[in-house]
Amino acid sequence: MKILITGGTGFFGKSLLEFLKSSNISNEISEIYLNSRNPKKILSFFSESSFPFKLSLIEQDLTKKFDFDIEIDYVIHAAAESGSSLGFDNPLEMRNVIVEGTKNVLDFAKRKKIKRILFISSGAVYGPQPSNIDAIQEDCLNAPNTLLPENAYGCAKRQAENLFSLYAKHYNINFVIARCFAFVGPYLPLDQHFAIGNFINDGLLNRDITIKGDIRTIRSYLFADDLCDWLFKILLKGDRGEAYNVGSDEKINIHQLAKLVSQCFNGKSVIKIVGENTSNANTYVPNVDKIKNELNAKQNYDLIESINKTIHFHK
Predict the structure, then answer these.
(1) In CATH, what class is 2-183+222-248+285-300?
(2) DSSP track, 128-189
(3) How far apart are CA 266 and CA 138, in angstroms?
(4) Which of 62, 211, 248, 282 could covalently link to 101 via disulfide, CB atoms 3.0 to 4.6 Å apart?
């Protein structure tokens, strides 16, 4: 089995490689092609000899037509994950990376007759979680406001999902979708817009753990190894043309999360609240009954263990 991973040097790409170092799935893989604008960055984290399969690096701008000719079985299209600052600094470029990049991946898959593509989408396609539901299901028809530039990421992911359905109809492309929520793990950026990463970074630097938003904000976090296990379940066993939520369904508010991270640092970090409460506390939690029931996905790591593993990696 040969797999192409786009966006291979981001959180998803690095987490997948880390997972494959010890997963039984590696025994079925003969080669991983890692695509990025600068794929050699991955060699700062992994040795090519770390894996039981061949690791090949491909330099490719996703917004350009794919000019390489390789034979592969599967694509994990993970480029432009939500960790990118493009969504804030240049939303138009963010949109182009996701939408035009997806079109180029699909054209490549059509030309090479790829067996299946797994598209790494996002819970952002649902827009704000309605206040009358506890967790978002895959059939939720809510959507981000297209007139707000800051929604470029969620809107672009929706457009990309629609491209997959169009290519499936016209060119018989076999695809599955993972709508990903919030995660924690060794390769999560600690200096971007992820509260859990920011809190861990504060603890590592012996600073106060600072809450900059509404302390009632509710999130849930899935450990990176569980994330990767679930992604391969979707890739290899998911129903064709279906979307699956990927994330934890164990809720925690941001204040409780800060206390938990402080606890993992033996309570040495003081919690500092600088944000203000809003009229409506924001919730962003997936319903994952579908992937659990249909693909037998399980959450193997609880949140404390996940945070401790992430801290240990950085130490």
Answers:
(1) alpha beta
(2) SPPTT-SSB-TT------TT-GGGHHHHHHHHHHHHHHHHHHHH---EEEEEE--EESTTS-
(3) 39
(4) 62
Which one, of 203, 167, 218, lies nearest residue 311 by Cα? 203
- The domain ranges of the chain are 2-183+222-248+285-300
* Tokens coding 196: 């859990």
With residue 3 as reference, give the H or E element that holds it: strand 2-6
| Ordered strands of the 243-246 beta sheet | 54-59, 31-36, 2-6, 74-77, 116-122, 175-180, 243-246
CB 42 within 8 A of CB 16: no
Q: Which residue has the tokens 């508010």?
A: 253
The string of pLDDT tens digits covering residues 95-150 is 999 999 999 999 999 999 999 999 999 999 999 999 889 999 999 999 999 999 88
H or E element, residue 18: helix 11-20
Q: If you ran DSSP here, which 8-state letter would residue 190 be given?
A: S
Q: What is the pTM of this model?
A: 0.95
> Helix, strand, or coil here: 273?
strand
What size, in residues, is the chain? 315
